[in-house]
Queue: 2 jobs
Job 1
Amino acid sequence: MTPVPVAIGPVDSPLLAEAVTRGGGHVTSLDQAHALVWDAGTEGFPASLPASVHWVQLFSAGVEEWFAAGVIARHPDVVWTSAAGAFSATVTEHALTLLLAGVRSLPDQITATTWRQQEFFGRVGTLRGACVGILGAGGIGRALVPMLTAVGATVVAVNRSGTPVPGAEVTLPASRADEMWDRIDHVVIAAPATADTRHLVGAPELGRLGPASWVVNVARGSLVDTDALVAALRDGAIGGAGLDVTDPEPLPDGHPLWSLPNAIVTPHCSNPPAVRPPAFADHVATNVARFAAGEPLIARIDPAAGY
Amino acid sequence: MTPVPVAIGPVDSPLLAEAVTRGGGHVTSLDQAHALVWDAGTEGFPASLPASVHWVQLFSAGVEEWFAAGVIARHPDVVWTSAAGAFSATVTEHALTLLLAGVRSLPDQITATTWRQQEFFGRVGTLRGACVGILGAGGIGRALVPMLTAVGATVVAVNRSGTPVPGAEVTLPASRADEMWDRIDHVVIAAPATADTRHLVGAPELGRLGPASWVVNVARGSLVDTDALVAALRDGAIGGAGLDVTDPEPLPDGHPLWSLPNAIVTPHCSNPPAVRPPAFADHVATNVARFAAGEPLIARIDPAAGY
């Protein structure tokens, strides 16, 4: 197969050039290209694209500015893709880290200054054989399933439609989310923040978990009733909480979550800037391979819907 | 297929009964059994086994007491298996936990009491796209490979023979372990402690890692030159160390590893007593299935070799 000619702009990028090559493309100038990978915002984007360019890959998940600037409307014959989903993997890895750290009692071991083996013999748990609920099995939640099964956990997933999530033992529709709570040992919250999901996890739900259960939230703080969570952590009704997002956020100094020994707070940094370029490069490689094979592209923008 | 009749002793165990059933056996009394799962030490073991019993599964990895008591010699026609390898998974999970916690900067986030997002944006890393060296790819090291690849890392494995480890990008024989150091971002030590492996990781090896590299040891403290490690941690020559084992062990109060912010010490508790029964049950299920299918059993004891 002849490599697909792909241009990269506005400036050369060895990381993206490698990704294009990995996806089966070769890097060329814009006037020779069938596709353009654009690694910046709207400023400096070509006023018009050569007729040979059929696809443009943008570098962010949100593309409001591209609609606002009229760039997409000016090129009705071009397929546009965003970076939506490209950054799921690092958030997923963060969720796994928080859950493992909690279940294996890392917070107290990290702060220990003496060899407390007998105590930790009784406190280090395992995800092996545990059942983890994933509340909101979208991009992040779905990517978490193979990581959890790799360590021997089983998964009960909840998504809007109940469409089976690959690798999950059970998938429940959101309307039956209530059934999840009695089946699981731990829960990872990865649902979008909407009016319907506010305080999705409150006192009644936490009350159905056990004293070794960990609650991980990598979605939005508003999904959890913070006061109920603090109470459950204080009482030992649950094992602990690993939170990359909080309500309120930023978490104010002096908030009880800062001092509770069974709460891990990371300051909404599960998707740090430094890890975005390689994640975007992987997304580019995947889409170049799909473009070359004539397959549907990932994260295609719908010009009519505006995202 | 008729279920294989398996006895469990010295007392009933619902966990093991479930494992026998899961493996395709059915639980019966000893006089009816073709196999015996023995969940205790030598004391109380039947003075003689019915001729129908062809296989005995013991409950520990080390079986010195069984040889010492003459039990194995008394039953030359029986196949004996130990629990060797059954407890690898929890040690492997611990190694993954330490590595993820380090790479994602959990120690400093756990001790933080204010929202330091900008700082952690620059410090939270990812295993995705990273290359992890596994020094000693035996049961634990091999089990770690699918966990690492599930989060998007690649693996360079080192084992005695260089026999390719499934899932590793490269496997090197121990004689070429030196080549590993320039290829990897992080290292997990899982090799046995022998005269040859003492201080396998010292100043020269640590010097070939980088300031974001984590060193995880779940094997034995003697494999690492502690003084060289402390120096590398103090200088920031490496990112950090996650140690379930130390030299000396127990780590004495006041040792620098207790206070270095980039060292995580867990007190040799990667395989805590509470997680052993379910791990042993999985081992039993696997071996019952193999026995039923006439396949070679896992962790078969060699009466001549004495282990």
Note: The CA atoms of residues 14 and 20 of chain B lie 10 Å apart.
Job 2
Amino acid sequence: MTGLEEVRLARAAWSRLVEPGDVVAGALVASLGPVEALAWLRSVAAEGAAGAPVAAGGLDGLVGTPASRRRLGVAVGRWAPRLATVDPARELRRVDALGGAVLIPEGPGWPGRVGDLGPSGPMCLWVRGRTDLDALTAPSVALVGARASTAYGDHVAGELAAGLSTAGWTILSGGAYGIDAMAHRGALATGGPTVAVLAGGVDRLYPAGNARLLAALVEHGAVVSEVPPGSVPSRSRFLQRNRVIAALGGATVVVEAAWRSGALSTAGHAAELLRPVGAVPGPVTSAASAGCHRLLREGRAVCVTDAAEVIELVGPAAAGPAVRTHEAREVDGLTAEGRLVLDALPLRRGGELAHLARAAGLAEHEVLAEVGHLELAGLAERDGPGWRRRRSPARGS
Amino acid sequence: MTGLEEVRLARAAWSRLVEPGDVVAGALVASLGPVEALAWLRSVAAEGAAGAPVAAGGLDGLVGTPASRRRLGVAVGRWAPRLATVDPARELRRVDALGGAVLIPEGPGWPGRVGDLGPSGPMCLWVRGRTDLDALTAPSVALVGARASTAYGDHVAGELAAGLSTAGWTILSGGAYGIDAMAHRGALATGGPTVAVLAGGVDRLYPAGNARLLAALVEHGAVVSEVPPGSVPSRSRFLQRNRVIAALGGATVVVEAAWRSGALSTAGHAAELLRPVGAVPGPVTSAASAGCHRLLREGRAVCVTDAAEVIELVGPAAAGPAVRTHEAREVDGLTAEGRLVLDALPLRRGGELAHLARAAGLAEHEVLAEVGHLELAGLAERDGPGWRRRRSPARGS
């Protein structure tokens, strides 16, 4: 067994021993290394010292104070009960049989930006499908939202995903019903890759109703989890899963979310990680958009309405040339005086200079100058001794 | 004629002589006083000096430099052509015959906050209906938006206006078709007062299709304009009118607006006047909401979805106690450990301590403590030698 494989086994074991987001475990592994930390845990647990103060070489920085020493003792008490059931080699064989792999920070394919999570980051990532998760998610956007989505939200999620996918962005989501599913489908529809981060093990394509969709992701992207095969998707794992989506994505966009929604926690994690957060507005009469409006109202998200605006959100540099062109109107180029004269011009019979000056509230020499500009712009024409309007553009109020 | 009536006549004359927003006229009137400024203009015009350099006592501050002297000369050239047609006494009789009045900063009923416009502010306000415009608009919100509104926008405008009106706020708008009309109607439906600021004279209830609605405003509020009776609502007057709406309102809320919309200029004026600006989101698939989303996206408006949020926007103090109550869920009070144990509890047959500790990833003594809290919270119950879940609330992801 190479050093790398030993590390992989140790990290796989740690992902079984601890619940996602365990910062004490994360700090311990970062401090001692995965293999050494596991050996240390085994030795401490063998002493039956759960809950008791612990000490070990290399832990000085971690347990420098009595409080942190107690904290580590409590943590050991949490991890130890699972030691007996840990069998990482068997679990690696299991994911291997599924055509998957375990990615680790020390090995290839690891998406470095997950490191932004610090000690609360995943011990490893169990992956089915493409294992070059670094390349796969290098330009990626997380599209998340309500499971109880509306037809409007489904439509927008699909459109955004298709637009972003076409522009070369990988779509990340959680594989759930509703917005998540539509985001994955929108990407698949354009032939683009898409990645689902699951709350349970990658052996169970949960929820069952999305099993076929998730199987398609295994073919055209990846299904990822930080918990080992066989793990159930519990409530706290759903919440912790959201931080992995937020960390993997270059930005997180909430398409539809109720006032209380897990999607808002993903947005919160993204903001903590200094990732841009977008929210898609919707009808104020729709409860499914209340969470998006909440994010906008509280200034925690930028309003995004199409793929171009999402790309602008992820990085202005990536947006390239003008994302949206609005037709310029002829009158836009006019001075204030030009507008006054334009307003003063009769539509039918030409108005004489003195009349135009009174109507516009300008001096006659000013009217003369402006009417010349308006003639050049095709907005005025001579009529007898005066001037009249020429084919007016739509009037705006 | 009292001094006040002389000032009123002079300001009425100025409102005929100059186009709305003429800062040179505003500065001149502020500097000399309306009566003296008018007398000065008459004397200068009589000398036929339009366009030529001018000088007069009391103007030193205004025309201290050659450039400002030239500027005033140009302005005189603009105002002079209209001098011959000015007859303020006749116009005052005209608005009096309509049951209206002319409000001036020096007299009663003047809404002081319009003074925030400085020299670009109105010379006077021609009013039909209630003439105590100060009291009428003291707590007021401007609801503005697209003429080409959708059924969604109409609904929201009506709901917002009714809600704000019920809470004691006067609804301001522009009397136009679409959102404006629905805002006025929503206020009238609750018996609340509402004020329309018109771009043309108050003698013409424009647009014609809203004549009955505007007549109802004369009965239950007011119709206001800074231009004298007989004035046509030109494009530039529409744009200038928007600054009066923005200045009169305690806040401006855009309900629906296309990407280019006059409502956005009202929002811009409100922002310049340091008034809060709100925007109502809508479907991203609706062009009628694109302007609102633009305001939100550019951080120029706060997202508002109901009357309570508008009131919060105008002033947190005015909002009173909690504007919105969201039901608290039992699980919200739990610690992270409590949630882990809750997740670990079986639904049917009780799980024993060792099992729960492994499932939750916690030490047994922690599970024991947490399961006690869960029992107290009614979320767990004993079952044989272990514990199980009690009536789970809806699971949130």
Note: DSSP finds 16 helices and eleven strands in chain A.
